[in-house]
Automatic annotation (TrEMBL):
Keywords for the protein's UniProt record, in alphabetical order: ATP-binding, Nucleotide-binding, Transport
Organism: Actinomadura alba
PROSITE patterns: ABC_TRANSPORTER_1, ABC_TRANSPORTER_2
Name the record gives this protein: ABC transporter ATP-binding protein
Pfam families named among the record's database cross-references: ABC_tran
PANTHER family in the cross-refs: ABC TRANSPORTER ABCH.1, IMPORT ATP-BINDING PROTEIN
A Gene Ontology molecular function term of the record: ATP binding
SUPFAM superfamilies: P-loop containing nucleoside triphosphate hydrolases
Domain ABC transporter: 12-244
């Protein structure tokens, strides 16, 4: 099976995207969004705004009802399932609020399992897993199991697994949601480091501080993008309190 080429510039292109579910639920209403390779952005909005649906479409976990979603230049709606799986494996890493680590397995095994279906020999999978864990600062915790790791360390293991194949796009869904502030800050610092190294990082969050710490902020409400800019842009265009000069 051929692996899709790596992206040159626009890693995400969404044009006129809608998503409808049974029962008359309109999760997305004509969304246009372009993300260049190498960006660090946050998508935020209240519960039910459509941000999780956006994540599923960008992550190729679902297809739009109408409109076009292109990831690394490939039209998701036109790809067969096998080709879509290849695109996802080559280009996208996922980090979730829940760490999804196997309780009885070491950190290195949890990460190596990310390549379980890639046809790589066990020795190579483990070598790559060790390198990924060292990359996220856990080279000294290779053989610890999840219950022996802090929440922040477990999330670092999950991030190591997500970047194991060096995907150009990393999707992080509420990555600090289950962490205390210090661990959350450390995880965000790691995501910024990955961005500095060239990874496109997209964070779904309801946390204002997380969102405003990104270079670009996209806010979703009622299935539509209502703001797309920087935190400074948002502050400068916000209405002033009555009586303020």
């Amino acid at each position: 099976m051929t692996t899709p080429d790596r992206p040159d510039s626009k890693i995400i292109e969404m044009t006129g995207v809608t998503k409808h579910y049974e029962g008359g639920v309109h999760a997305l209403r004509g969304v246009d969004l372009t993300v260049e390779a190498g960006e660090l952005l946050a998508i935020t909005g209240p519960s039910g705004s459509g941000k999780s649906t956006l994540l599923h479409l960008i992550g190729t976990l679902d297809r739009p009802s109408s409109g076009t979603v292109r990831i690394a230049g490939h039209d998701v709606g036109k790809l067969a399932d096998e080709r879509l799986s290849a695109l996802r494996a080559a280009h996208i890493g996922f980090v979730f609020q829940q760490f999804h680590l196997a309780a009885g397995r070491s950190a290195v095994d949890n990460v190596a399992d990310g390549l379980l279906y890639a046809g790589r020999p066990v020795r190579l999978r483990r070598e790559l897993a060790v390198a990924a864990l060292e990359r996220v600062g856990l080279g000294h915790r290779l053989h610890h199991r999840p219950h022996e790791l802090s929440g922040g360390e477990q999330q670092r293991v999950a991030i190591a697994r997500a970047v194991l194949g060096d995907p150009p796009l990393l999707l992080a869904d509420e990555p600090t949601g289950n962490l205390d502030s210090a661990s959350g800050d450390a995880v965000l610092g790691l995501l910024r480091d990955l961005h500095t190294e060239g990874t496109t990082v997209l964070i779904i969050t309801h946390d204002h501080e997380v969102a405003t710490g990104c270079d670009r902020l996209v806010r979703v409400r009622d299935g539509e993008i209502v703001f797309d800019g920087t935190a400074n842009d948002r502050a400068s265009t916000a209405p002033r309190p009555e009586g303020a000069r």
